[in-house]
Protein 1
Amino acid sequence: MIKIEHISKKYKNADNFSLSDLNLLIHEKEIFGLLGPNGAGKTTLISILCSLIKPTSGSFSIAGLTYQKNKNQLKQLIGIVPQEYALYPSLTAFENLKYFGSMYGLKGKELDKKINDALDHLGLLAFANKNIDTFSGGMKRRVNLIASILHNPKVLFLDEPTVGVDVQSKNVIIEYLQQLNKNGTTIIYTSHHLNEAETFCTRVAIIDHGKLIVKGKPKELIDNSDGSNNLEDVFISLTGKALRDHA
Amino acid sequence: MHKLMASARKEFLLLIRDIGGIAILFIMPLVLIVTITLIQDSTFKTVSDAKIPILVVNNDHGNVSETILQGLEDSNAFEVNIKDTEEQAKDLVFKGKFQLAIIIPEDLSSGLAQKVAQNVDGIIAKFGIEDETESVTKPKIESKEVKLYFDPATQISFKNSVKNGIDKMVSKIETQSIYKAFQEQISDDASEVIFETENFITFTEILPKNNNKELIPNSVQHNVPAWTLFAIFFIIVPLSINMVKEKSQGTFVRLRTNPISYATVLGGKTLVYLVVCLIQFVLMLMVGVFLFPAIGLPTLDISGRLPLLFVVAIFAGLAAIGLGLLLGTVAKTQEQSAPFGATFVVILAALGGVWVPVFIMPKFMQTLSNISPMNWGLNAFYDVFLRHGSLLDILPEISLLFLFFLATTLIAIVYNEKKNTV
């Protein structure tokens, strides 16, 4: 489904590569977790796959399509849930979703129904006509998610979709994503919540310093790592305990 | 088309949700135009309501100084205050209490009379009307100097106009004195009129006519187009802020991953902000037509001009929007876009001739003015408002405005593509 070949990325004026010769194959209908400490290169990789930034070298394809040749087709195929709330604060949840749905060519009653169904699923229907700037962080995260799936994307990229939300909101989001996956959506997500990733992902890849350290099913990684009882133990054993502060 | 309309709808919703922003967008230009017109109106009136207080020190007390004082009173522009000494007057003016002090020198009247008499005697003697043997050595009469003290803060245009006025008054007095001296020499009868002292050459201002009605420009006809254009161009500030906000909110990132072209995004903004420009324009016209007469200002005459005025407003609005789109595309923060946008509009206005007419600018600035879209817009408005021009007359200006819109929008699109293409 997603074929990443020798992708490297070095930002302007940066000393080091954010991604270095990364190769990865993500299969259709997988829930694939990109894990790594701060500054490991997770968001950079997602940004490259969503055509937000250029790789310095290497190539990738999604469902056999590339941005160079099939830009609009590819954009119609993917959805992205950015880390920040990419919503208009002074518009209502419904108005935001109506606008972003329209950008995928959706319109009329069909679009209204999709919006209302999704809001209902994620417990926001009663707040459909409230402005986003009155929403809590968890509510914004859920609207942020809906804005990315109205067009039924084949591939959904999520950058820290549950960061800063309460347990209830997190559960609703995870359940909804699992539902989408059951319906055929391939999910690629980044997170710092390793427990969440352990249960949610079918496969994970741990990246550090822009390099792929390890990949596989969570259970296999735990079993293959001496003394590790969970994914967090594996993560610490592979990436170390040193702080990753960077500016 | 569906995406374009959805974008326009979103822009409309964003605008109407920002009540404070809308108030600033519509009310501030109206406040601006009323204030400026009230201030500038007096300069267009032949009789001003407000007289400028000035000081006069009369060291002469003769007929010439009386004529000067009478001339100042008759001008209706000045409120004359008499002071005893030059020092007193100078002190008050340099402290900024008065704009001007006129110091009339001692013996101005008698000196002028002597000088004129001496000259006339000489001329008459040359013609042999009087006996040359009577002539004696003529005493040298020193020229007299009327001193003018100006407040250092006084504008040069005011200084020049006062200097010209006094110069003209003094010349007239001199001429009349010469005629009078000739009359006294030639005729024994004081009541006999030999010389007509009224000006032979006079000036008449010929104004353009429409349907045999003279088109007399007033402060409103000048101010409304100039400041309307200024307000229209100020749209670049909220427009660029709107675009920068999209970047900081992250919505622009989402749009970049959506199957929508940047041109469509800009198209939606253009449609909505053009409507804003036109509403601003209509409000400005309404102020000129309805509010100005109610507060004692001349009425804005738009009879028969409305369609052409809207054409100019649309193209001026497009040019302003194009600039806003480019600024919003290039700027990264509101701290970049807002001050730059506001200052740039002021520069464009200055270059365009909103404050100082282009023809009195230095040559280099006149050349620069030719590439200011505000100059094209202002000329087009003046063509319609003051020169009663037709669509053909404003075609060059509106074409330039449209080309400017196309060029700036295209640069914005290309810049965005270059920056974001993967």
Protein 2
Amino acid sequence: MPTDLSATHPNQPVPPIAPLPAPPRPVRGRSLWADAWRRLLRNRAAVAGATILVLMALACVAGPMLIPYALDDIFWDAIQAPPSLEAGHPFGTDANGRDLLVRTLHGGRVSLMVGLVATLVSLVIGVSYGAIAGYAGGRVDSVMMRVVDILYSLPFMFFVILLMVFFGRNILLIFVAIGAVEWLDMARIVRGQTLSIKRKEFIEAARAGGVHGFAIVRRHVIPNALGPVVVYMTLTVPKVILLESFLSFLGLGVQEPMTSWGVLISEGAANMEAAWWMLVFPAGFLAVALFSLNFIGDGVRDALDPRDR
Amino acid sequence: MLSYAVRRLLGAIPTLLVILTIAFFMIRLAPGGPFDDERTLPAEIEANMKAAYNLDQPLPVQYLRYLGGVLRGDFGPSFKYRDFTVNQLIWGGFPVSLRIGGIAIALAAVVGTTLGALAALRQNSGLDHGVMALAMTGITIPNFVVAPLLTLVLGVHLGLLPVGGYGDGSWRNLLLPVVALALPQIAYIARLTRASMIETLRSNFVRTARAKGLPEGTMLRRHALKGALLPVVSYLGPATAGIITGSVVIEQIFGIPGIGRYFVQGALNRDYTLVMGVVVFYGALIILFNLLVDLLYGALDPRVRYD
Amino acid sequence: MQDIPRMLGRLATGLALGIALTAAAMGVAQAEVVLRRGNGAEPATLDTHKSTGVPESYIQMDLFEGLLASDPEAKPIPGAAESWTISDDGTVYTFKLRSDAKWSDGSPVTAEDFVFSWRRLADPATASQYAFFIWPVKNGEAITKGEMPPDALAVEAVDQKTLKVTLRAPTPYFLSAQLHHALFPVSKANVEKFGADYLKPGNLVSNGAYTLAEHVPQSHVKLVKNPAYYGAKDVKVDTVYFYVTEDIDAELKRFRAGDLDATYEMPPQQIPWAKANMADSFRAPAYLGSYYYAFNLTHEPWKSNAKLRKAVSLAVDREILVEKITQAGELPAYGFVPPGIVNYQSATLDYAGMPQKDRDALAKKLFAEAGYGPGKPLDLEIFYNTNDRHKKIAIAVGGMLKQKLGINTTLTNQEWKVYLDARNQKTYKDVIRVGWIGDYNDPNTFLELLRGDIGPQNPAAYDNPRYNELLSKAGRTADLQERGRIMTEAEALMLEDHPIIPLYYYTRPLMVASYVKGWQDNILNYHPTRFITVQK
């Protein structure tokens, strides 16, 4: 039984000689992940994206401390005032006369956290679920996918309302609520990939080599399905960030005076003609964050692809 | 394959039953009932209301009664829209949602895969970057921003298209809602296609095909595109079911009489029968489209077997 | 699906009717006059006895006519009844119906139709949410409670055109209540013929200025002029569309694009813009409604601490609130019952005349006396249902309380049904937002809300036996002036207890195109289409 399959990259079809001989020398090759990391660092767009995202996160965390107003300070003489440096509101104020810069930064804390955590939750559940269903096939796959269909169909709003009724309002519930729906698409995509991957030669080889099912899924199936997964993940983040504002509508999301980009954007959208700044600034922040994330996503995808070496 | 499809369709019945059962009890757990309003009702009047809609019976009895109705194809009366039955509301609105959603998703599938494939073929070219930047923009801007922006510019200021309403369903009424619905979908599909196309183009069978000297066009059509569509198809199944059952945002902003808003309005009004109706209807569509997806897998990738 | 033949049948009838009406309209050489009204939410039902919402009531007002009708200013004028007499003790009303009152199928409107309709309203089998509108009539309440059969209702068709109604007690608002859709007549023959389907276009006959031509759920209701209406020759608008406009931003855009002639309401954040850019269309008439916050009196610190309640109430600057936040010309409220109600002088809070600076100082003093201050800060949660306007107000009030008294305010919003549940069960923590629009032009529609015995409806769980007693006494008083005085006394008594923080009296901001004539602002926002003309 091979002791270190990662030395041979999963994507390189293992020659159909089974069982594989043990590596002749005990030299460990660079692992897949270390290799990918090195390649990621060489991708300029990805590094730039990561830098911007980190700077943005830092600004959202530290920025509000540097600004002399709190996020709920009301300027009664500057209700819905346009951006003005002299007035001390570079992003203007909202319909309640609160500084929009502070609110945008505060909103970023919530949205970035929701975007990352809820996406990770959906990623972990979705990928493992989809890969197992697809690899196991047959009745297991059938049952697992029917469960996905059922969860798809259940009324999301009642799910949210019930979460709130039974557990009270809690920031963790936002992740639960969003994670619980967003992994479904991911699971379907990964399962689709797995169905195709599992018929490939290297999987057959590993199986013939006596590798345990779960190990195959973990070491061969998932790494090979990561391309679409990473891309889908970058698509999930914006969905999740905007879904959060819908949770606020139902009373589960963040509550005033706290805010999030999703909430700010929906307020701005309702007011885009009279107060463009209420839409443009939060939407701009969100767009920059998502573009950066996208570059990182593409970089990760490329880095994980061994044929790019 | 036929026997597989038949087996799956039969398997859909227990799945739907589970959906119906969980949803039925779930929505009754939420606080508030269909007849709660600003003015609380005198107890006697509330009792009359409940009796009129059989809500005074024990929950299991209500459940069996409801199930019996559904088996006969009767989803019961709407609790909120008292002049209509749930069947009338769904069958009145679904053709509209289907029309708008169907056009939008077909448009998105064609435009999205084309753009995605082109971007993948010219990876890292100006075209690729341009398409992907557009796609990212489409994903970043939510439809509750795009829709009012479109109506504001094209409807209010330029006066080119109606701002809202379905009218007689002419293209002028359809154009903006279809575009607003399709834009984010185009973006999603383009990105998914590009990613898996790049993956496919590098795989062995494409290399082999190229090595064999197969013309690039044939190779693309016969091999690359097919393989690249797998994740797109996975996505399209549930997405189609979702889009042809309408979008509450689009319907409210454009004043479209579809069924999308029943998912939200029904839930907010605690219109139990209406919510159950759209949930079961949507569940059936989800199952149907996921079956189609699985059948398409087989067509796209011969390695996938039905077992 | 077995309904299809029947639906086709109805469609055919509808088409035939439509063609007939079109032909009739074409006979007149003039172009068709069309009015397109934004009408808010999808009507829950057009059944006058079952509906509860405002959008429905606007449609029903055009379709049907009660014994009395609304004039352009929402004042009662003779409707289906041309005259009436009231017995000296105020309990027996005898209405004389117009001889030319007809249903849209040409048959006469009879006293028997009213008897049938009102019995239907009271009947538990109808399950009307507004059945209590018939409770002033003798035996009405017992019928709804199932203790008596519907035909025990004390309403009698003396002859074809004479209706005699016996009330259980003098009810001064009984005449103005006739403007409410719950008391409108439906055609007995029509309802008996079609059963539950009588409301479908083509089936429905109506006695108002219009008849039902189309009802497309989530899109619109279309009404056309009723040629059988006695006043048809004065009705200028031939066709009215009531569009479903659930998204108020989208509604405003449709108005601006010229697709609507009048809107149902206005997005609050667009009001300053509309005032600046579309001043000739923007209107914000006073509206019979009161917006206030209620304290949860079921527990401390609110239950027994009137000083604390008063301190919080004092610290809210209503002038700033209406000027900077709501911005639709609302009147700052220092009482509960809005002004403009006949035979009533609203009471006001004792500090109403004080400048805000002095109120703030007094608030601080009372707050300290109640035992709070920097050493012992107060936490206060403002609870409201999800809505832009409520959110803006809650943020502003929270800011004022924090700024002036150092109260740690938190805001909680919930969707409508969860909010109602919290209000009814009193599970909200401290303060809840409440709004109330009067059902009829009488102080009782407001004051009864704070009676101790009204049940969960009372948002504060306020219960002052003396207040309850005063209201009961007013209910027994036939003299309208005296009745009004007693109610003012009750309102003043309640305000001194500070169970609520009155914030403002409503206005009704909306857009009406300048070419729409005859649309007169009024406190109930009733605008029957028959008084409106369109002059483009």
Protein 3
Amino acid sequence: MALQFILIQNRQGKTRLARFFSAYTKQEESGIKSEIHRIVSTRDGRHQSNFADFRGKKIVYRRYAGLYFCVCVDNYDNELVYLEAIHNFVEILDDYFDNVCELDLVFNFYKVYAVLDELFIAGEIEETSKANTLARVQRLDMLE
Amino acid sequence: MTSLKAFIKSVRSCKTIADERNVVQKEAAAIRSSFRESSLDPHARRETILKLLYLFTLGERTHFGQIECVKLLASSKFTDKRLGYLGTMLLLDENQEVLTLVTNSINNDLNSANPYVVSLALSTLGNIASQEMARDLFQDIVKLLSSPVNNIRKKATICAMRIVAKAPELEEDFVEYSKKLFAESDSDALLATITFAIGLCQNNPALVPQYYYLVPRLVSELKSLGSTGFNLEYEVGGINNPFLQIKILQFLAILGSNNPETTEQMNDTLAQIATNTESSRSMGETVLYECVRTILAVAADSGLRTVGINIFGKFLASKEHNSRYVALNAMAPVAEIEPNAVQRHRNTILACLQDPDVSIRRSALELSYNLINEQTVRVIVRELLAHLEVCDKEFKAGISTQICSAADRFAPDRKWHIDTMIRVLSLSGNYTPEEVLAGFLVLVANSPDLQLYTAQKLFGATKADISQEALVIAAIWVIGEFGDKMIVGTKTEAFETYPDMIINEDTLIDLYSTVLDSQYTSAAIEKYTLTSLIKLSVRLNSPSSTERIRRLIQRFSKALDVDIQERSVEYSNLFGHNDVRRSAAAPMPVPEIKVLERVLKSSANKLKAKPVTKSNADLLLDLMGDEPSQVASTVSATGGPTAGADLLGMNDSEPSASTTDANKNIQDILGLFGDASGPSAVANVSGPYSVTSEEEGYVDENLRMTLEGQREDGVPGLTVLVRFYNVSGSGELNDISLAAAVSKGLKIQVLPIASTSIGNGASTVQKLKVTGPSGMNVKFRLKLGYTMNGSSKESQITFAKFPAGIL
């Protein structure tokens, strides 16, 4: 039921964020990253769905400008929910960084992880409220 | 030392990859040496770790920084801890010994007075917990399940789920905790609590009944989410707390499956959501989709199911690729249960065969196979044939096989059957599996009325296109067998398709030379051709034809392929012994096909096979891997694509020895089927399905249960068909229920049973899906229950009869 991993990559295949919820070796992780890039970057957004098969599981992905947000779910999972969860995540990032762009994710990669950890834990959706999440992350920043 | 920002900038400003490597390596060296300094001030240390993590995201080797990250965990500063945990999650994985150190720090921080520190530790534990960690730390988690801080309770709840997944022996305690959480949680915490309970139920389906009491509460929660005004805090995409709605629906699907009582409690609310949810926005569609999935998973009444399937029908007609994709996938398992409701959307489904998205096309294909029955076979096979013409190569073999199996089972008449098969051979003759071809030839051999027609049509089709291997082989075989009939026969309907066709001794032999001279010829074609030629030599009368045939055969006396050379030389020698040649090339004994006779019951009588020596017929059947008794049961029980797979003889349990023996015998009688035996043995492995035989799992005086595993190549996971037979001899069996668990490392999904009661002598079927690492042995623990004459019976069974490595 849970997510296997969440990846944010740009069109060139550079990984901007990677959170693995199952145990993989570092080698497997980098294999997954390049395979996912191969899969999503060759898909045609206008004529294809946002779902692709991946090693017996499914990739649910969505492209925002030059960035692909990908999550890996089980075959019988509700793909649409995860698509919405990705969108929710992006909207929160957009509020947090005030019009987010790829550079925000590059220079503040550690903050992106902090936002992610408020939304997902152990591959499950933990929090869905935009306001709650933002309040918490901002509070965390103040503790620094 | 540069700052993180400056470092990132300098990496980004690099013009070439070589430049970048240079900058990165210099920085990595600097980081390494700064770790060796003991007097690094805290700020510089944090900056260094951040750079290290940036290096990690670039894909550099960063293992040398692991210990530094763990050191940060011990710091008393929140900033340090936060960075330390981030580094820990990124750099470590479950399998490293450093985890022991991490476990210690997490243990300390879970007991911290600062809720933000506790929450950091929880996030880390949830994301990287190993089995050992789970065992060491579960007591801390249990404590936190009653934390006064909402956020911590929620995180701890999901951590608890991960802990049980890692250490299932803790399950019993945690079920009690989850119930306590349900009693306490408001709608804010409900999402996490349900996630926890679903996790428990998935690990061990036997726990499901323990949560039945929650159904009324969940239903009322769902109802109020759907009807009351918006709580802005949890509004997403125009829907009130959609993620919670979906979670509740998922849990209801688990609680309602195979339980009419709980299903009854949720029916109304499900209907309400299905009709009231606004589907114009994507979030609404998402909730609706989950709702219909729940309706189809529980034993909802047929009216509600139809409502659900019609909603999917709307999805199918949508412009959104995503909606079509999910609807097709979700409809496939229902096609057997609610065939009529799904049939209504046949045209929309068939239209999806032309979709630009390959995964949608694939799902549409799978679904359309399920829709084929006596009434729809003509329409759907016509669409499939049209699709076969244009589809990608990878689909051709699969579609050919499916069309063939559909035709075998549902052909309205023999002529349609033969026409369909010729069309398949002409469209995808280079991808037609060997057993499809063999099945067709057996069919022709068994249709004396249509042999002339078939022969003429194949002759015409092959003259028009000699690039399709299976078509060429079929034509060659048929001409070899029925060449004499073709010469003297009248013009049949085949001439409507090929009006310019001229059939005489010369044109027949011309076809052979064209085939052998063409660039498309193959070893298989050459072998078939040689045998066919020797047969034809006794069917044609003029000496000039015999001479042409002799020369064609002789051409191969120096062939590189030893088998072909041997045939050529032996056949050439037969021309010196006319009597032997005549008896050797006598018509092939008509192979008996039980499958066909059963399917075409009406016409079976007049098509009674000519008397054949029994042993030969049996051997032929062996060749096709046809075990009649088993096929019979498969067809009667499912009528689905399984039957097709069995018919085509992809049975793994088939002993290979019999194939080889058969091969020899057949070659002795010069039967062309001998050729099919080699490749079809290979097809056992490479076909789209691997199937285990049906194994008995349980039997008593009333009920017999069998399990059959099926695996589709390329798709991981095993589908297990569980069949229940009523063998009581007297009454009806009711409330049949099956709970299943698998060994650790495997995952199981239990699909709804086709019907929970079976009358005397009848049977029903239920599907289980097992996924896990390939090569693992599949073992089940099953809990079977049923009632008979008011008294109920329950048994636990351990089933491990599947062969090793089936997954």
Protein 4
Amino acid sequence: MVSAPTLHVVSTELTVGSFAMAGVAFVLAGLASHGWFNLKRHLKLADHVAHFALAFGLLAMPFAMVTGIQSSPGDGVDHPLLINKMFLGSAAIGLALGVLLTRRRLGEHVWSDDWGRRWQSLGGLSAVGLVLLTASIGGTFSRGESLLDLFKLPYDTVPLMPVWLSGIVLLVAIGNLLAMRRGRAV
Amino acid sequence: MKRTPVLLVVTVLLFASSLGSANPSGVGQGTFDAQCGGACHGDADMNRSSASTVVVEAPTTAYEGLPTSVSVTISDIETTVSGLLGVFLLSDMTGAGDTPADAGWDILSNSEGGDENYVEITVAPGETERTVTWTLRAPSTGDHPLHAAIHHGTESGEEAPFFGASVQPAVVEVVAVPENLPRLSPSFSPPVSRDVGEASTLRLDTVSVQSVEVEWRLVGGPINTVMVSSAGADAWTFDLPSSLQPATLEWRAHLGGEGPQQTTPWFTLQSEEPSWEVDETVAYVQSITLLFVFMVAFMSLHRKTATPDDEKYDAFEEVEY
């Protein structure tokens, strides 16, 4: 039977590879949508690659998370790095879902508006950045070093909100989501 | 057709069984029955017999309520690449209700710096034998068997989890305490862990003791003696030095009085980096919040900027191929 650490490496490489490809495609799509560097003719290709790679990375992510939990020592999340990894991973999933749902809702119109195309490419890039940061924390946790260590990021500091504040923010977010759906229905 | 959802559910269930069958990275120290679901290998039917030899050693006689030392030696060790090996001390081999506490024993400490019956040790490459020691307070009078068991995987990681157990139990005859025997108080419970850099002043409560001498050592190091001060009737205090890095210190006391001199087992005191704890529920709620906030915030940004009503619009139509 293949052990959880091996499966984690495989699923992590799938996730990070997909997100990295999505990142490059989002850069190209952003440039193409603005008509820069004579890339406009590649917009359709970059758009499809970016969103499909992002979606595939999102599909691979749960496997990376499950095998990561299986292969981590001890029980539960008992290290600041693991908590920050979880927060960044959640934020990345949320942002990536937002990017994909927006693309699904607006279709190719997402590239037709000045601010829309900026938000879409920046949103996709930010999701990719968050995933790469999450992977960097994984490297720091398991091997004690990571390529992003040169930025001296405060991985050991955990920005933890009280549960009541998290609850309120969560309710506001869900309320906003429902308001958006109702607005569309009207 | 409902074939697709059914296939998805079956696939998820198949994945769940393979992922949940074992914890190759261990579960940490704890109080576990043999082969229980809480230890590293959940299903006994999946286990194979370990080739390692497990021997449990204990004194043939112990005094009721007084500490005694039990050691478990594992030889011909084979384990995973990470060297993780789970070791149990058990009161029987039924698989349920078989921790030493179920038979009246009280674990005071173990050599890995805890007070549980299940420990996980990391075996160095090439190391073929390891000994884990427990210090327990003896139960009521009578014969009390103690067994040991191990859990581990293989270096290749391809086969089932392995389980091994001691062939013979160590039977300890617990006898009543003579009236004038110098001994530790039944209420004395030694500390098992402390933070790195923290000095320890220990208070020793005793019964029928007139003099105390305390020795300490680092594992594998020379034995040192510390000054012991009287802190009243049958109470003594002494200082153990702080450690500058995570280390295991062992100490024991020689108790003198009217009865025959007694020596306690070695008690283990583990120095660890200050532990870090967090309320996991708070962290999980915040994670879900972050997910929704980032998703909704991003979708809200687009809400004001895009107009998908014109279905005839084609953002790609200006492209010339």
